[in-house]
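Researcher: Here's a chain I'd like modeled. Treat it as a single chain, no partners, no ligands.
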Amino acid sequence: MNVTLLPAAILFVIAIVGVFTLRRLSDRIRISFDAVCFIAISLYLVKQGTFPVFSPLSGSADSAALWLRAIGGAWWLLGSRIVVAGLWFVIHRRRRSHEARLFSDLAAAAIYIATAAVVLNSVFALPVTGVVATSGVVAIVLGLALQNTLADVFAGIAVGIEAPFGVGDRIQIADRIEGLVVQMNWRSIRIQTDGHDIAIIPNSLIAKAEIINRSFPGERRTAFVELTCSGDAAPERVIEALQQATALCPDILRAPAPRAVLSQLGSKRSVYRISFFVESTAHLS
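Model: Modeled as a single isolated chain. Structure tokens:
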């Protein structure tokens, strides 16, 4: 097959250099560059009468065939990048950000692994049976060594599917940690507590713990305070004093109105309870 080496070399260099040098630019620029290079390489391969789709390129070992193989590998790399970018856009548009990050990372890893296998088999005509067998043994060893990490990953998948909370929600976990969810990924979640600390909790613990979402269906919270007074105090005056005290607190909502009641009457002491609403849990701290 007569192939002009210069266009193939130029396309290959532009594609590879562009992939690694444009990583810091915006997603739109990177996707546009990948699409242009993908179309250019596709047209070039069609012009040369070959196309690296489920069939290996010519087995000839001359320089022209080697450049075609390199161009075919670049074609598959760009194609996988475009698919990952499109999948990322669809997932992030239809799901909340913590789910999107988890699913997009797992999907991208699967796509790149499949692309590598296809390139080895269809482009470079290398047998992948041995690689698959070896990778199976390696996977068993890694699975035994990374049991806790894998448990976090699969627990993260379960949490992402169920979606009991999202980034920006205020949650309480097992009566121990309460705060604002600031990040969720494939291994753990990060919670900013009221003390402005960051708590990192593995997904495997999240899947087993009791979770209270303070932000759903709304952030408004109700609470109560119990006070003990002398049994000789007139209940009407105590209740009036409690209601006046709540009126002086700016964090307590006026509607629904606070309510003070006598919850326990005794000869020596009486217990009063005042219930009220606040805009969010943060106002209770």
